[in-house]
Here is the input.
Amino acid sequence: MTLWCLMKGRRRLEESTREMTEREKINAAKAGGLTVFVTQSSESSAIPGYLLFSVSWPVWRFASVVCLLRPLLMDVIPSIRQTSALALGRLGDYDVKLAEAIVKAGILPQLICSLPEENRYYKKTAAFVLRAIAKHSPQLAQAIVQCGALEMLVICLEDFDPGVKEGASWALGYIARHNPELSQAVVDAGAVPLLVLCIQEPEIALKRIAASTLSDISKHSPELAQTVVDAGAIAHLAQMISNPDAKLKRQVLSALSQIAKHSVDLAELVVEAEIFPVVLTCLTDSDEYVKKNGATLIREIAKHTPELSQFIVNSGGVAAVIDCIGSCKGTVRLPGIMTLGYVAAHSENLSMAVIVSKGIPPLCVCLIEEHEDHIKAAAAWALGQIGRHSAEHARHVAVANVLPTLLDVFMDTHSSEDLKMKTKKALKNILQKCTHFPALEPLLHDAPPSIMKYIIGQFSKVLPHDSKARRLFVTTGGLKKVQEIKAEPGSLLQEYINTINNCYPEEIVRYYSPGYSEMLLERVENYQPVL
Amino acid sequence: MAALARLQERLEGLREEYFLTNRAIDEDRKTKYKAAVKIQRWFRACRVRAYLRHLSRMVILIQKWWRGYLRRKNFREIVERAYFIKKLKFYNEMAVRIQKMWRGYYVRKYIHNFYVLKKYLKAVSVNNELVRSELQEYAEMKENEKKMKDLEKKEKEKKYQARKMHYLLSTEQIPGIYNSPFKKSPDPMELLLRKSKPLTHRKQQVKSPFAELYDWPTCKKPPAFVTALPLLPADRQKPQGPFRNPAEVLQQRYKPLEPTLRVRESMYSPQAKAKEATQREEWRNPLHDNEFLPFSSYHKNDEKYEPSLCKSGKYGQEAYGTKYFREVYPKKWIADKDFETLFSSIALFEKFGKTYSSTGQIV
Here is the structure.
């Protein structure tokens, strides 16, 4: 069906572009647009192979369609111009090669130059064409910028019709998202104040797109983010956090987090816009991405300084983040986990606050349940940051039965290198402060030598001073295990083992050393009975 | 001659003797010379030594005095400096002690204050509980709203279906599908059908662009400005004549009311109630009952009439300006005659005032 339509459309276009009456021209252009529309509408349900097949067959034909559409763009009748622009837009949207063909055919300058005199439908369609081409790669976006498209798009942004503004800001967003230079070009064209005005418009779609464009502009560098802030965007974005539309909230939270991530001053500006109790309501939203972006915003604020983390803790943000982690699954949890890690990393009081807010059980659950390695690595890192400050913190972490889980993850052969490294570091940090023996003892039996030395080190620090612990150590089989460990003489592990052995009388040490029973039996054999 | 021979023999010996005595004398002289040199040498050396000793004693004396003088000059400064350093060290010591005590106190009281930390952590957990409960309530509220919306949508759907299927309503003779005679009471759908109005397939109302804003629970009315003209049905006949665009007319006619803040406020709102107190005050306190009495200077300007200078004479109003404008002095005229025209005047204008006007005066 698609191929037939393609054939038909192309033939009609080819045959008599010059002699056609207006009606036929409109139909032909519509047919040119329709053919692509048919393939595109099948996109939503189709198998990719089918698409490739249906396009790769007449791709060269499509390239020639581009050349054919070009004279139609300069036609006298406005609806023909508009339909042919729409067809070009759909072609460019579909495939990279087609977009490159459109750029190479030199259609863009003529599309752009005629913009100021045209009506709003044409402007919308022209913006659609630019966006369809710019989205594929930075080089195509650069080509568009060189044609002088930015000034025209900014003029479109000043138009009264909200649809035109939406198209223009969408195109600007796609241009700006590739790299910092393109973003800077967009900012230099003077788009940012107009985008801030667009955000204040009542149409929700326009607000969404403008917020997404501001987010794309400010994500690259602190200077660009500062430009966006200077245009007064933060206040408007902060007001829109309480809007009920979920997609708008996604974009707004993303924009604010891209602004806040660059430096302490920007993060403080975002916080001063009084987002705080409101952002926490976003964390309970039903939409997953709103939760994720809300958690990302809190993470970007928390990571800069202890004061900001303190502020978040004081406003109850940590509890909200913990609940959010508990209620989601998958990559949506990741920013929340990292927030907890950052907050706990700053100081021991904050880490204690995280513990008190019942932060450890959800992190442990993440470590067990998640399949992705990077999420597990983040959870392991966060647990390490919580537990590394003092014995009290390590005790809380150990009591929650986290250490065996960490050890399992570390020993698992399917874990990636990064995950293993992070888990090892976390274990090291926690173990160096942990003095809670009931949690340490199970580890003795399973741990590999690299972890063993920390465990033994901890034992060797406490056992010389605590007699009850010594007794417990013997009765739980720890001493036996220690004797079975083989360590190189002179290594740290051997020193620790020696320290432990020195805490006990020699008979007991010998009793538990391996091969003692054989030694006793040998003595029995060699004994001369006293008659 | 023999004496000569004897002398000559003795001459040989004499020569030798002479030589030997001379030699002995010479050697004697040499030893004496050497001894003298030795003595002189020694003596001179003693003299020189004594001189050098004297010199060195003098030099030591001079240097001693000079150095003493220099040191005595710098002595004050050195002593002052040493004293200052000693004092400074002492003060530093004391300051370190004070700082040590203060810092220990401060850290124990404020930074590592265990009890404050404990209270803070308790406060954090209490706050967390509050936040959690509030968020829970908020989430529940959102859930309820969503449910309500869904329910309403379903209701709307049902009602629409009922309106469409209005023909399925049961009549007197024929019971409808939903009103089975074997059941005790009719189906709820039957009741719905009874309540609903039949649906005609006229054009459905265009969904207002403000519908999505109405959904926002806190926004009770749409924004006051209208961004797009209302869409009228496209197949209307345009009436002939100089009429305005009907869409504009409708927009003007149905422009939403934008009452001022004072009107919008309800009578029972707290601001209105707060105003009551001031109103009561004002009712109590006025000086007199005539609220709208003007100020005393209100009628100042219309009591006294001042006639204009040009028209007033000594005894009243002059006729100049109303009855006549210019004054005529016939005595000052040069000639009796008026100006003569050289050219004949226009015949028509000659007749002015003479032929067709009865009240025209003939000069």
About this structure: The interface with chain B takes residues 162, 202-204, 243-245, 277, 280-281, 283-286, 313-316, 318-320, 323, 349, 352-353, 356-357 of chain A (CB under 8 Å). Residues 1-23, 32-57 of chain A have pLDDT under 50 and may be disordered. The radius of gyration of chain A is 33 Å.
